[in-house]
Each structure stands twice: as C-alpha cells, then as structure tokens.
Design brief:
Length: about 280
C-alpha cells in the first residue's frame, strides 16, 4: 500500500524521514507542497503512523498504488458538516432562540448516542413550529458556507466524468439550491412542511435516515449502471455509516469518532480536496 500524508499547511520536509521509517516504506514522492506519498508501506504500522500524524496535525491514508478516478463513477456526499460547514437545522433554530437545545440533540445524534434518527429529527423540527419560513433564506444567504476544498474536489470529479449525489438528513430547501449552484446530478433530503409562510413543525414524507441514505446510494448506482463499490462516499455523522459501508472508498470528513473509526480514510485537517491527492 502507498501512504499519503497531507497537511493543511505546507508539509515540512522533516516529516518525511520519520514517517518513512514508521510506515516501513521504500521511497518518498512529493505530490505537492502539502502532501507526500510513501511507497510500499506496511499497513500493519497504522497505529504508529496514526500517533505521529495526530501529534503533528497531519492526515494520512493507506491506499492502493493504482487507485484512480477511473475506478469510480459516483461521488456521494452528506450535506451538513460535510459539503457545508454548518448544521442547517441548528442555524434555523437560532431564529427562534432554540439553537443550544437543538444543537445538543443534533450533536448527540451525529455521535450515535441517539439511535433513532427519525425521532431525533421529529423532535428537533417540532421545536421550529410557527417560525417564519424566511428564516431558511437567511440561513442559506448569511450562514451557509461550503467546506474548504469542496468546489475544487467537485470540479475535479466532474471533469473526469463522475456523477454527483448530495444525500442529506437535512432539508431539500438547501440541497436544491446547492444542486443548482454546484451543478450536482442528484439530491435527496427531507421536506419541511410550510403553510401560509410558517413552518408547521412537521416533516413531509419519508424521513431520510441512515438506511434511506444507503438505499439512495444503491439506487443511484443502479441507475448509473455501476456497482456501489464504484462510489466514493463522504460523511461525518453516525447516520452516514450505512451509506459509507456501501462505498468502494469511504471518507470521514471532520467526523465524529465512530465515523472516523469505520471509514477507509479520515480527513481531520485538510479540506475535501484532499481526496484528489489519493487518486492518480
């Protein structure tokens, strides 16, 4: 396996020698100012590499030497805290003075401490009852920001013919706008019930939970005529684990511990464009 080491800052040359020794690799190749590739490493040395990288705020990934864009046909992404930096429901709740209460439920759900995502979403949305729907516009226009490297990563994937899916336990008010803005191919998310310009505190239709996310990835792959193993899936919360398990390459982005432990790759420091350095 090759070992790719990345840093959000220019990678100090002094890291190459100790990492080469820790990973029992053969040679060091410079990818760019922020990354190196160590060839023919021993993945059983992951623990030593992990400890070193955690100490020095570096990201690492053991990858096949021949891993390339051509191996994949789809990039599937979570939205909140993955493609974008915020949890939209928390920011919506801020407009009715309940951000701390809603955020606490969101955080527990994403860590996997609340096992029933449907119930947690219903509970959070119920607290928004009566809120003017214009709050959604304010969240999108004033608070929603793309995660670092998101546009670069998507442009690279699209340039080599990969299709894109945004699948979220959040709301289609935001996924629809991001679809148009980023020229995404497919989206799926929850629908907030709005009557007379006010949120009713209800979600319409089937809730997009962990199993629905995974099913959406499978169905999208089937529609494209590819296997789920030809999908790259990126997520951060426990409700992403099932769809990440479908993937040929799963990426935990600034993720909760339970997700980092399950993913093929974890980006804790670099942006989403760190994906580009893993693929030939």
């Amino acid at each position: 396996m090759n070992l790719v080491i990345q840093s959000p800052k220019p990678l100090a040359a002094a890291h190459a020698k100790p990492l080469l020794a820790l990973a029992r690799g053969v040679s060091v190749q410079h990818i760019d100012a922020h990354a190196i590739r160590i060839t023919e490493t021993d993945p059983t040395q992951r623990g030593n590499v992990d400890a070193y990288c955690e100490t020095h705020a570096l990201d690492y990934a053991f990858v096949r030497p021949d891993l390339a864009w051509r191996d994949f046909g789809l990039v599937a992404m979570d939205m909140d805290s993955t493609l974008i930096t915020i949890e939209c429901i928390d920011e919506i709740a801020d407009f009715c003075g309940l951000k701390a209460e809603v955020s606490a439920i969101t955080e527990a759900a994403m860590r996997g401490e609340i096992k029933n995502f449907d119930e947690s979403l219903i509970a959070r949305v119920s607290l928004l009852k009566g809120l003017d729907a214009h709050a959604l516009d304010h969240v999108y226009a004033e608070r929603l920001q793309l995660s670092p490297g998101a546009e670069t990563m998507l442009a690279a994937a699209q340039s080599v013919g990969l299709r894109t899916l945004l699948v979220s336990g959040g709301f289609n008010f935001f996924t629809d706008r991001l679809k148009a803005r980023l020229q995404l191919d497919f989206t799926r998310a929850n629908t907030l019930d709005i009557v007379d310009g006010k949120l009713t505190g209800c979600v319409l239709g089937e809730i997009v939970n962990a199993s629905v996310k995974a099913r959406t990835v499978r169905e999208t792959c089937a529609a494209l005529g590819i296997a789920p193993a030809q999908a790259i899936v990126l997520g951060d919360g426990s409700n992403d684990l099932e769809m990440m398990a479908e993937a040929g390459l799963s990426v935990a982005f600034r993720a909760k511990p339970v997700v980092r432990a399950a993913a093929d790759v974890a980006f804790n420091h670099v942006g989403l464009d760190g994906l580009l350095r893993l693929l030939q």
